[in-house]
Amino acid sequence: MKRKNSIKRDLNRRQLFQKLELKRMIYKSLIHDFKISEKDRYFYTQKLNQLPRNSSLVRIKNRCIITGRGQGILNFCGLSRIKFRDLAQQGLIMGWNKASW
């Protein structure tokens, strides 16, 4: 049950990030723009701080799409190294087979 909750939590974080990404980028660019007044930059800093912490990119964790494992994830397929190895040995991943020499 623990992994299911972590998968659901990560999915919620991804959805929240996608929803607020543009707003977060706008606030950050306005904060770093020295052409506007310091008072306005402070205002946008406060607005950025009011956004949920889970809407940040660094809060997203790559997880295996089958098992929910959080470590050893292969980026090109989204599987953990263990699950990828099992599926490749069974011949379920096209183009991959166990090397033998």
Secondary structure layout:
Layout: H1 2-31, H2 38-50, E1 73-74, E2 79-80, H3 81-89
Antiparallel strand pairs: 1-2
Helix pairs in contact: 1-2
Family: Belongs to the universal ribosomal protein uS14 family.
Organism: Helicosporidium sp. subsp. Simulium jonesii (Green alga)
Protein name: Ribosomal protein S14
What does this structure look like?
With 101 residues, the chain is mainly alpha-helical. The chain has two domains: 1-61, Helix Hairpins (Orthogonal Bundle); 64-101, no CATH class. The chain has helices spanning 2-31, 38-50, 81-89, and strands at residues 73-74, 79-80. The chain has a two-stranded antiparallel ribbon. It is elongated.
Describe, in short, the structure shown.
With 101 residues, the chain is mainly alpha-helical. 51% of the residues lie in helices and 4% in strands. It folds into 2 domains: 1-61, Helix Hairpins, CATH 1.10.287; 64-101, no CATH class.
Portion of residues in helices?
40-55%
Determine the CATH topology of the largest domain. Helix Hairpins
pLDDT averaged residue by residue: 90
Broad structural category: mainly alpha
GO molecular function, one term: structural constituent of ribosome
Pfam families: Ribosomal_S14
Protein name: Ribosomal protein S14
Family: Belongs to the universal ribosomal protein uS14 family.
